[in-house]
Amino acid sequence: MALSRSALMKRPPASAPVFKDRILMGHCVSQMEALPEASVDVIFADPPYNLQLGGDLHRPDQSKVDAVDDAWDQFESFQAYDAFTRAWLLAARRVLKPNGTIWVIGSYHNIFRVGASLQDLGYWILNDVVWRKSNPMPNFRGRRFQNAHETMIWASRDQNAKGYTFNYDSMKAANDDVQMRSDWLFPICTGGERLKDKAGQKLHPTQKPEALIARVLLASTKPGDVVLDPFFGTGTTGAVARRLGRHFVGIERDPAYIAAAEQRIAAVERLPEESLLIATGKRAEPRVPFASLIEAGLIAPGARLTDAGRRHVAQVRADGTVAVGGEVASIHRVGAKVQGLSACNGWTFWHVEAEGVLTPIDELRRLVREKMALRGVVS
Amino acid sequence: MALSRSALMKRPPASAPVFKDRILMGHCVSQMEALPEASVDVIFADPPYNLQLGGDLHRPDQSKVDAVDDAWDQFESFQAYDAFTRAWLLAARRVLKPNGTIWVIGSYHNIFRVGASLQDLGYWILNDVVWRKSNPMPNFRGRRFQNAHETMIWASRDQNAKGYTFNYDSMKAANDDVQMRSDWLFPICTGGERLKDKAGQKLHPTQKPEALIARVLLASTKPGDVVLDPFFGTGTTGAVARRLGRHFVGIERDPAYIAAAEQRIAAVERLPEESLLIATGKRAEPRVPFASLIEAGLIAPGARLTDAGRRHVAQVRADGTVAVGGEVASIHRVGAKVQGLSACNGWTFWHVEAEGVLTPIDELRRLVREKMALRGVVS
DNA sequence: AAGTATGTTGAATCAGCCC
DNA sequence: GGGGCTGATTCAACATACT
Lengths: 379, 379
Prior knowledge:
Two copies of one chain form a homodimer. The first copy, chain A, is α/β, with parallel strands linked by helices and 379 residues long.
């Protein structure tokens, strides 16, 4: 057999476009419609905010605030903005893999409409995440609270999609060993990170900080995943994806932005492989049937298991089940039964006694796993 | 002014609308329709969130989470929820004075629909304000980010209403003389503040902390103003309004909640005029994720950490974990591992080397904290 | 009395795999 | 695709009991 199955599968069909690590010029809806169905793992979208600014805004010293007044941010009405939102969210959903997820960032001007459209189209919200800006623009007129945050919505493609990527252990380890919360603190994009034109003016009005996108991708993608950004702008998503060993697809209408993004991304170096590994917890450990402990000779059929308080005793049977009284079932079922609970982790509940010392059977499982790793059974 | 229980229950005569400091029993829409037009200064609304919970949820210790499964939170569809939302927002808008404002609190389950409806009905959003919970419930299954905040929308009755109340200087003074931001940190309502029944069970499943409502009223009302709460529950809004010298109108369907609210409010003493400023409590030391050091550029992915004696070396990964040998985990876990201990403070154990000098990463954490303090984002 | 250990609880859309 | 089994998963406050 000359060609392995995996080799065959890796080759893209001749008809499918090679679209990874490319910027597609054009409107986001038509460009997404041209992409293969179910082909991207994550979408990060920073759509127009539909800012409705009245007149010009001036600082207390009378200098004019450089507002977002680009043509692409103007919509005639909420209805027009909704129609646009639904169109691109629909096209995005087709491109997303069944277990893919989407992130959309916005402010109070547009995020409520985006969130409602997401729900209407069948997406299932997983979290809303607040980007707390450590250095937001002040409210110059003193008529409102300082607008110090933006909102990101993280949603799966379908309500019942349970297999989406969330690097829980990685996030927790990076956050002092407590769960990562839904409010994140980052500075806005300034200084050397902010792209400027030759005149020293900012190239894009709403360039997002790379740190923000980095946490998004580290949380919800694996190395090698494909990340689509339908409002690519100057390519922050592409730059971060490349640095983190993810593939990107960008869609952008403005050739000037595309040129800036290409130059920017080309200068990005991918981090070395070993810096990109993701912390994994117990969930990623290989399964070990309890019977393996018997087969490995670590526990003999007929041996007695007890809980830490020696209140319950179970007898090990040759087939990997255990018995308490007339009850014969798995270590988990029996552990639950004797405690009157609906569930129980038998690995941590049951112990074996040797010379008066109790050892949790989870310790024996660890030994089995070590052996498996040595034999190369487990990659 | 003494409030008797019978006085609280008295319905206002239709001819002379004396409706201040009363709880009206009934459905919020019909009760609001019976109120005079343009008669209240501020509305604070905590509507049903339309949580769509699946099965039971258990904590890791097998205890069952007491879910919000009350009938009033059940809606057949998003469409049904939208119809309900539009109905009460419409009735609320009629009751609101032209320069009045409305606050609505919600979570990602409902807040996007509320926000879109507000905009559709002609309200004008002034801010969205994030309530950051200092002690939120964890995500027990580790499948998402910890849901650590709720969102409040603050809106004026009309786009062109410029005369709404915003106590800018009061807010700024209460916030160490920097503008009050749109993200507020408060603990959830527990302990002595949480109303309990005779059996010691919580009286209401979603009682809000008084401190949160107090900041809302101190920001957007003047003493003597009338505050309407169409989902009065156990009367947090009424209690805070009375304490702060504002009038309230409550609407509530459940007689048991009304009885509890009456008793609660009757026990509240109005604060003396001069003491109506909020006290701000800052946490001792803000938590800094190790990942923040990477995001701040103080440590690069791939950098090497060593202990003070240079006996151990760990490599920093892009996701905020570190690695020694095959072990990938937090700075704390890896520090414990290499020393053969069960625990370790990674902040003081690990160092970075620059020009031959070892610096504990705790020093870098200190720098991050200083920056945060300078920007006023600690609290 | 002061500190330590243990138990309880909160607006929650909270599994993955094999057969 | 459905059914069944395995076995992984929590943070900050507050309350209570005990040393």
